[in-house]
Each structure stands twice: as structure tokens, then as C-alpha cells.
Write a structure and sequence with these properties.
Layout lengths: L4 E4 L4 H12 L5 E5 L19 E5 L5 H11 L3 E4 L6 H6 L2 H23 L3 H6 L1 E7 L24 H20 L3 E6 L1 E3 L8 H10 L4 E4 L5 E6 H14 L5 E4 L4 E3 H15 L12 E4 L14 H7 L7 H14 L1 H7 L3 H11 L7
Parallel strand pairs: 1-2, 1-4, 2-3, 4-5, 5-6, 6-10, 7-9, 8-12
Antiparallel strand pairs: 9-11
Helix pairs in contact: 1-8, 2-4, 4-6, 7-9
Bound molecules: nicotinamide-adenine-dinucleotide and 2'deoxy-thymidine-5'-diphospho-alpha-D-glucose.
Nicotinamide-adenine-dinucleotide binds next to helix 1, strand 2, helix 4, strand 5 and strand 7.
Length: about 350
């Protein structure tokens, strides 16, 4: 079906991958609303900047009047909400933006969507979907032998970021329960792939390795994350949008639990092979253990049985194939990396890692 949709946060990491693929597959017109914070980057969308099926709008999900205008003008059949402040470490330094966008912004978005949806005729009302993109972090941290998170796992967010995402999930749920808004929520594990901002572990390590800088490992590096290639996440979202049951939550994950140190050592091995250091030594020599993240969650793991069983989605990439594509993308797109690591980025890494005793300028 050819659909007009509004995507929020479509200039960021996952949102841009989603928008690009939507347009490439000819699935319909995307109105892409993004505030262009430090994490939003129009360079991610160059491929479709003049495409008739892509309309970029610079704006905030907290701007209800703008949202009302866009909804009235484009009459979308769905809204997919990626817009958020997304970096845990930034939420520890300064939680306010996270409350503003993730909680208050989602509230204004829901209010605008509710008003629009109420005005639709019966058939359009039934067809409409609001899909909220959330995270596994809302479930808190797992012990070594605990079963992976299912959709009924209790909410135990531990960081200001995850607490703000949990609050937004609750609002989305309440808008369905109270007003009947046809919502879908997805809770996904750690993504990696092209356009990943180099403040996050995988792109940061690739960037620092090539720049001859320390590869900072928080604490002992034995924390576990469950990695999913970004295109698999985007495919899962399209699948939920198309066939998900209204009001339901779907956990999305790659069945790829890895310790951080294991991920970093894999990246070093791949870079040693693809772009050896001039002195012949391994990039692993740059690994540096630094002070741990405050309140660091030990382990995340997603049980993605429900989405596989009910909707037939499964990841295509293994960690090995996905990380190979990712490293190759970063090596081939060093201009992109140079552009996003200027200005505000330098300020962030200096401040954040200086507190951990590392000079990253
Ligand atoms: P990102 O930080 O790369 O991108 C966020 C985008 O949202 C940016 O383009 C930014 O400009 C935009 N934005 C921020 N505040 C806005 C506002 N008030 N109004 C409009 N746009 C705004 O984030 P990401 O990693 O692509 O994550 C996207 C979504 O997926 C988030 O909701 C995040 O919680 C969720 N998620 C991320 C991961 C992951 O591993 N990255 C995993 C699971 C879920
Ligand atoms: O689980 C999904 C979440 O994954 C998303 O909701 C978040 O938006 C996304 O940022 C990500 O959160 P994490 O905190 O898991 O990702 P990050 O890349 O920041 O860190 C991954 C792990 O690596 C984590 O255990 C912290 C550690 N780490 C991170 C950085 C930046 C380091 O050891 N050193 C670092 O310099």
C-alpha cells in the first residue's frame, strides 16, 4: 500500500535509515519532522534531498501548532515517532532536555495526533496508526542468568534517559486505553550501522581508533548489550506498522548478546585487517579502561519471540555480517565522520572523558 506518513526524528541515526529505506522501496510520501539537534544531520538524507516522496520540515515535536498544521495538510495514515534525546551519558550530565523532548514533546505530539485522529472519518480512523519507537532500557538491568526481557517485564528504568522513555511509553499506552488512539509500541535493543553518531560505543571506537586516540571502556567492560543491525530494526518497524495489533507492544532484538570488551576487540581486529596501523601494532593497544558510567546497567537482552511468532519478523543480519557492513561504511565515509565530529562534538568528548581522566580533544 502507498502510504503518506509523518516520521519524527528522521534526520538522526535510526530515523534516517528508516526514511531512506521507505523512499527507496517506494512505500509512499514521508514528511520528516526533525529539530536538528546535535544528533540530527541533513547529510544523512542527501540521497533523497530532492526526492518528491520526501519532505523535510525543521521543527520540534513539542510544537503542537506546527504538528496540527502538518497533520491537516498531509493527512497521513501513520505517525512514526523516533524523535528523542537518545544518549545515556548526556542524560546523566543534563537530564532536562530528555524530559522536555522525550516526555513533554511526546505528550504534545500525542495531543496533536489525537485531535487529528478524532476528526477522521470512520474508515480512516480505523486505518490510522501511531507507532512509538522505544527502547529495552525501560526494563532496567538483567542479572547474568536472568531470562531476556519479554513484553510483560516490569518497567525499572535506571537512567534519566530510560526514565524519560518509560514515561513516554506510559503516555502512549494511556492514549490508547483512555482515548482509543490506535497505538503500537516497539522496544528495541542496541542498534548499530551507518549514520550512528560517534558518541555511542561502536562508532566512537572506530573513530578514536583511526584517530590514534584512547578507546575508552567504562568499568571492567563486561557489561552486556544485545546488538541489532539498524536496517533490521527498520524492517521490524515496517512490519509492526503493517501487521501489528493495535495497543500491543513488540520487543525487537537481534539475539546478539556481547560484552562491551568483546565488541571493542572485534572492532580492533577488523580495523587491523582493513586499515592496519602505520606502526604495525594492533588498535587493541589503544584500549583504555576508564571510570564507569554512573548507575551503569549491567546487561540488556531482548526476547524477540513475540514479533517472530505473531508477525513473522526475524533479523536478517548476524552480528558478524552487520559489523562488517558497519566498519566498511565508516571507512568509506570518513567525510561524514569529520563533519559530525567538529564543533559541539569536540566540546562534549572533552568534557565527558576529561572527568574520566582521558584527553580526547
Ligand atoms: P538520535 O539521537 O541519533 O536521533 C534523534 C533524532 O531526533 C535527531 O535527528 C534529533 O535532531 C531529533 N530530535 C531530538 N529532539 C527532537 C524534538 N524535540 N523534535 C524533533 N526532533 C527531535 O537517536 P537514534 O539512536 O536514532 O534513536 C531514535 C529513537 O530510537 C529514539 O526514540 C531512541 O530512544 C530509540 N532507540 C534507539 C536505540 C539505539 O540503539 N540507538 C535502540 C532502541 C530505541
Ligand atoms: O539498549 C538500547 C539503547 O542503546 C538505546 O535506547 C540508546 O538510545 C542507545 O544510546 C543505546 O544505549 P547504551 O547506553 O547501551 O549505548 P552506548 O553506545 O552509549 O553504550 C554501549 C555500552 O558501552 C554501554 O554499556 C556503555 C559502554 N560504553 C559507552 C561509551 C560511549 C563504554 O564502555 N565506553 C564509552 O565510551
Amino acid at each position: 500500500m502507498n502510504q503518506t506518513i509523518i516520521v519524527t526524528g528522521g534526520a538522526g541515526f535510526i530515523g534516517s535509515n528508516f526514511v531512506l529505506e521507505w523512499v527507496r522501496q517506494g512505500l509512499g510520501h514521508v514528511i520528516n519532522l526533525d529539530k536538528l539537534t546535535y544528533a540530527g544531520n541533513l547529510e544523512n538524507l542527501v540521497e533523497i534531498q530532492h526526492h518528491p516522496q520526501h519532505t523535510f520540515v525543521h521543527g520540534d515535536i513539542g510544537n503542537q501548532a506546527l504538528l496540527a498544521e502538518l497533520l491537516a495538510k498531509y493527512q497521513p495514515t501513520a505517525v512514526v515517532n523516533f524523535a528523542a534525546e537518545s544518549h545515556v551519558d548526556r542524560s546523566i550530565h543534563g537530564p532536562e532536555d530528555f524530559i522536555q523532548t522525550n516526555v513533554v514533546g511526546t505528550f504534545h505530539l500525542l495531543e496533536a495526533v489525537r485531535a487529528y485522529w478524532n476528526g477522521l472519518d470512520q474508515a480512516d480512523k480505523q486505518a490510522f496508526r501511531f507507532l512509538h519507537v522505544s527502547t529495552d532500557e525501560v526494563y532496567g538491568s538483567l542479572g547474568k542468568n536472568d531470562p531476556a526481557f519479554t513484553e510483560t517485564h516490569k518497567y525499572e528504568p535506571n537512567s534519566p534517559y530510560s526514565a524519560s522513555k518509560a514515561a513516554s511509553d506510559h503516555l502512549v499506552r494511556a492514549y490508547h486505553h483512555t482515548y482509543g488512539l490506535p497505538v503500537l509500541t516497539t522496544n528495541c535493543s542496541n542498534n548499530y550501522g551507518p549514520h550512528h553518531f560517534p558518541e555511542k560505543l561502536i562508532p566512537l571506537v572506530i573513530h578514536n581508533a583511526l584517530a590514534g586516540k584512547p578507546l575508552p571502556i567504562y568499568g571492567n567492560g563486561q557489561q552486556i548489550r544485545d546488538w541489532l543491525y539498524v536496517e533490521d530494526h527498520c524492517a521490524a518497524i515496517r512490519c509492526v506498522l503493517k501487521t501489528g495489533k493495535i495497543g500491543e507492544v513488540y520487543n525487537i532484538g537481534g539475539w546478539n548478546e556481547k560484552q562491551n570488551i568483546e565488541v571493542v576487540r572485534t572492532l580492533c581486529r577488523m580495523l587491523d585487517a582493513k586499515k592496519p596501523r602505520e606502526d604495525g601494532k594492533s588498535y587493541a593497544d589503544q584500549i583504555t579502561f576508564v571510570e564507569d558510567r554512573l548507575g551503569h546497567d549491567q546487561r540488556y537482552a531482548i526476547d524477540a519471540t513475540k514479533i517472530a511468532r505473531e508477525l513473522g519478523w526475524k533479523p536478517v543480519e548476524t552480528f558478524e555480517t552487520g559489523i562488517e557492513k558497519t566498519v566498511t561504511w565508516y571507512l568509506n565515509n570518513q567525510d561524514w565522520v569529520q563533519n559530525v565530529t567538529s564543533g559541539d562534538y569536540r566540546h562534549w568528548v572533552q568534557k565527558h572523558y576529561a572527568e574520566r581522566g582521558e584527553e580526547m580533544a
